[in-house]
TrEMBL record:
Protein name: HTTM domain-containing protein
Domain of life: Bacteria
Organism: Enhygromyxa salina
Keywords: Membrane, Transmembrane, Transmembrane helix
Regions crossing the membrane: 21-41, 71-91, 173-195, 226-249, 256-277, 283-300, 321-341
HTTM domain ranges (all copies): 180-270
Listed InterPro entries: HTTM_dom
């Protein structure tokens, strides 16, 4: 137990006030500028039609539909104010806690339109972990307020043999929490690829399919033309992800892996969609900047005075309870990985884990999705063997269109949904309908199924958009060879316009 306490408390130094400011400030900026960011996300939510909003996981137990701006926007304002206060160290402890609670809630709200919102998992957890960091050092406003009031300065490091003065914030516990989650997310991504594709993922075809879809020259042009380069990047990716846990063993390994992970995220952004600059900000907490500065000074012939060692007799109850909490976090990450749980706020990081080629989606032939009977069997098998192949729902969504048909006109629904949520929504409905038809041995067009139930939820929105007196149908169609197969339809009519007086 003593060794574990030392590892959790002293693997990394306490969070320095300058580093705290940089992390808070950069995450604040990115949260406003990234479309699905913690602070910008509510704008995306309210640009999304109510029928396309689907609460995820834990949020689904609290929200019954699209959340109201009456509480989301004030929550965002309070979170933003607390975020700035936490960055400069003003009322820093409550500010850090309010920021963490607000960020967590806003992450869950935004997940209803962008899926699990994986790009903001680590930043959200980082803000939670920073509530365990020291907030009133000499680079904070609170420090100068204490000095102005004549109060004594607090020591920078925790001496855990003194149970009366031990403070968790003066250890490296917060940074180690971020380290465990950051490396855990990388490792889970590698394991998910092995679960979903096995070693076949390494042949480069999967990566090339995603790169071809994004069309980001000039790098994408080279990679599309050279399968060996895609294979090499696939090997490098899986090696980094599966080797991420080595960062927990030594400072040297940690620095190498963090640098490699930063390069990985930059490379992904250059050739594919995901923009993970916010992860690079969090990675700054994983670097021992003091050790690097001391090494550089020694190389330049200007050695620094050695840092006075911190007493490390792990006897504080706070240290032991915190260590137990950290180990519970590790156990939770392991359980999520083994059981492949994807239920907000937890994830096993399944992105890009499905093997893809020009002919296949995992073990499924793409051509089979154009046959309604084979598609029904595929949907049944997918829903019966959760978790389903990660890429299959998006592939199924390409076969679906939902249209509003009125006299002489046709409008496709979902075109104005500013996120991928619509694709997940309609593919889920279609797969449940197809699966039910395969299980019961009935026509996929049988009335009263998931498709008809879904279309009925769209009727109020369609009525509101349609001119007075409009009559028509909402149809749900699945693309097969030679055309579209209608899975369901409902009729609607909008109220007649009131007669003029």
């Amino acid at each position: 137990m003593d060794a574990l306490v030392r590892w959790w408390m002293y693997t990394l130094p306490p969070v320095d006030g300058r580093l705290r400011f940089v992390v808070y400030a950069l995450l604040f900026v990115l949260s406003w500028t990234h479309e699905a960011g913690l602070l910008a996300g509510p704008d995306l939510v309210f640009r999304t039609p109510a029928f396309a909003y689907t609460p995820r996981g834990l949020a689904g137990l609290v929200l019954t539909g699209q959340p109201s701006a009456d509480w989301v926007l004030p929550l965002r304002a309070v979170t933003a104010i607390a975020w700035v206060a936490a960055a400069i160290g003003l009322f820093s402890r409550p500010a850090a806690v309010i920021t963490a609670i607000g960020a967590f809630t806003l992450h869950g709200v935004t997940a209803g339109v962008v899926g699990q919102n994986h790009g903001w998992y680590l930043p959200t957890f980082t803000l939670i972990a920073l509530t365990c960091a020291r907030t009133d050092d000499r680079f904070s406003v609170d420090f100068h307020i204490r000095r102005w009031r004549g109060l004594p300065e607090r020591p920078a490091h925790a001496k855990d043999h003194d149970k009366d003065t031990f403070e968790l914030g003066r250890t490296g516990f917060a940074r180690v929490l971020v380290l465990v989650v950051a490396m855990g997310l990388l490792f889970m991504g590698g394991v998910a690829k092995l679960w979903g594709s096995g070693l076949e993922w390494l042949d480069g075809h999967t990566l090339r399919v995603y790169i071809e879809a994004e069309q980001t020259p000039p790098l994408s042009t080279f990679l599309k033309q050279h399968l060996w380069a895609c294979a090499a990047l696939s090997w490098a990716t899986l090696s980094l992800e599966l080797g991420a846990l080595l960062a927990l063993l030594s400072r040297g390994a940690r620095h190498v892996i963090v640098a490699a992970a930063a390069c990985f995220h930059v490379g992904v952004q250059l050739v594919m969609v995901p923009a993970y600059a916010q992860y690079l900000v969090c990675y700054a907490l994983l670097i021992d900047w003091g050790a690097i500065a001391a090494w550089a000074s020694a190389r330049l012939g200007r050695p620094r005075a050695p840092t006075r060692p911190v007493a490390m007799t792990p006897s504080s109850p706070v240290a032991r309870v915190s260590t137990a909490g950290g180990m519970l976090l590790v156990a939770s990450l392991a359980l999520v990985t083994l059981l492949r749980i994807e239920w907000w706020p937890v994830t096993h990081v399944p992105m890009y884990s499905t093997y893809l080629s020009k002919q296949r989606v995992g073990e499924i032939r793409k051509a089979d999705l154009f046959d309604i009977d084979k598609a029904a069997v595929i949907a049944r098998d997918c829903l019966a063997s959760r978790p389903c192949a990660w890429a299959l729902p998006i592939r199924v969504a390409r076969h679906i269109r939902v249209r509003v048909l009125t006299y002489g006109s046709s409008e496709e629904l979902g075109a104005d949904v500013p996120s991928s949520q619509w694709k997940y929504l309609v593919s889920g409905v279609a797969m449940r309908q197809l699966s039910a038809s395969a299980n019961a041995g009935v026509d996929a067009q049988a009335p009263g199924g998931p498709v008809e139930e879904f279309l009925r939820t769209l009727v109020p929105e369609v009525r509101a958009r349609a001119p007075a007196g409009t009559r028509g149908r909402i149809v749900f169609e699945y693309k097969v060879r030679g055309g579209y197969y209608r899975l369901g339809q409902v009729r609607f009519s909008s109220p007649e316009a009131p007669a003029p007086e």
